Amino acid sequence: MTLQDNGATNGLTEEDLQVLRGISLFAGIDDAELLEVLGGAMPRIHPRGRVLFQHGERADAFYIILGGLVKVMRHTADGNEVILGVFGQGAAIAEATLFLGRRYPATAEVAADARLLRVDIEHFRQVLVSRPELALNMLKAAYQRIGYLVSELERLKSQTGSQRVADFILELCPDDTAGEAHIDLPYEKGLIAARLGMKPESFSRALKRLREMGVEIHRDHVRVPDVSALRHFVETGEIVRPAPAG
Q1: Is 197 left (phi over 0), alpha (psi -120 to 50) or beta?
Q2: What is the spatial distance between Cα 53 and Cα 102, in angstroms, rounded to a whole number?
């Protein structure tokens, strides 16, 4: 039975349901069971800049992103902000607090107006007792998150700033593209720089270097003349300059 069939959608649209069905955390359960798991959580719009929770606060809920962006961060002893991740539609934020303890391990802030579900942790813990398959789903999701973090750490250690930016752009290009590609940046350049562990001036220098390969960036739009050349640069650090026109 779907939520629409029983008339109880809790304000969830069909698009919301599609997002939730695609989250590994909810794999194997139908829409009616999904509603039970969510415990009456209803979508809410949160403006950019809204802090959802802060590092060290008591963890009483986790969040599911139905739209928009949320950044997760920590602050160093000298006050610098370190971005741990920028997450979009279909991501769960702080669900690991179900297992890891009663405090949030980082701070979460809305990076672009977001539509979120706030899921009560105590209710979800009670559901896990009767639905052990959900606990297994969470373990799988945690494993995927660890793999993602390890991959990110390897990139930071092995790539130059220019390669990191190129890799970021490359991930936005269609997988089957070898020639020219046109893409839009998913969020502002300052946030991208922070996400890649770079200062704004280093990010600007990296963009300038990519222009040597003919990469053009106008506001949030990027033109990559040769995706295969960009991929070669990410893998080897060698720049392949475009052939002179005509």
Answers
A1: left
A2: 13
User: Both tokens of residue 217?
Assistant: 């960036």
Instruction: For residue 24, give the 3-state DSSP assignment.
Output: helix
Q: What does the chain come to in residues?
A: 246
Q: What pLDDT score does 85 carry?
A: 86
206 exposure class (CB count in 10 Å sphere: 0-12, 13-18, 19+): buried
Within-domain flag for 97:
yes
Range of the structural domain that residue 47 is part of: 14-150
The pLDDT-based confidence of 144 (bands split at 50, 70, 90) is: confident
The separation between CA 165 and the C-alpha centre of its own chain, rounded to angstroms, equals 16
pLDDT surpassing 90 at residue 139: no
Number of structural domains the chain divides into: 2
**How far is Cα 229 from Cα 242, in angstroms, rounded to an integer?**
9
Q: Fill in the amino acid letter for 183.
A: I
- Give me the CATH number covering residue 224: 1.10.10.10
**What are the two backbone dihedrals, phi and then psi, of residue 89, each rounded to the nearest 5 degrees?**
-50, 130
The domain spanning residue 87 has which CATH number?
2.60.120.10
User: What predicted TM-score, i.e. pTM, was given to this entire model?
Assistant: 0.75
